[in-house]
Amino acid sequence: MKQVSVIFFLLLGFCLSAHTLQAQQNEVGVGIGGTNYTGDVVRAFGVRHTRPGGFLLYRRNFTDYLSVRGNFMFGGLAGSDNPPFDALAQQRDTAFSTTVAELTAIVEYHFLDYKKNINLLRWSPYFFIGAGVSYFGAPAAETPSHSRIQPVVPVGLGFKYILSPEFSLSAEAGIRKTFFDYIDNVSDSDLVAKNYEYGNRYDNDWYYFIGVSLSYTFWTIPCPYLFSH
Q1: CA separation for the pair 182, 24 (Å, rounded)
Q2: Residue 170 pairs with which residues in a beta bridge?
């Protein structure tokens, strides 16, 4: 009887530890925030050109520190030469407004061990990096020499707080590295006929997302046979 009790409590301890590690593996969430852009038309990040955006996420937690998430984001991008940042921009005097839809896979690394119930800490900063594709809507006067589907690399920092066993709140800011110079529909031209309507073909455009998200964790209970016998 004593041996049975020892085995029972060993199995129970194993299952409870497995529950701690595995029960929080899957999350879904929704987020809102703002998108922004820098490129040939807007040279420096500023809140004036921020447009609303939002995203949906699915997160898989592999360890207490490492997670991978699938992310679908949608937002607006806009820019204007008014006010101009130099004399060339003043002569060009252009503006654009478009949209972006982004599908990415992102790896998150949390710096602090905040998930275990024995810890008083309920929050952690995290770093993220990923890869994916973006689809850019057409500006009013589209240049036809490029594809609107482009690869993108998201990189950024965030902060996550556990509200309850089921819900977590995150805030993050990320940049999107593109390999594309036509978000603003301004790029290179025929150098023989150079005028003020063009930009720098070697300086690719970037866009940004800053926002908050609420995620829901699906809890599972390993070893159910222990509780059914």
Answers
A1: 41
A2: 160, 213
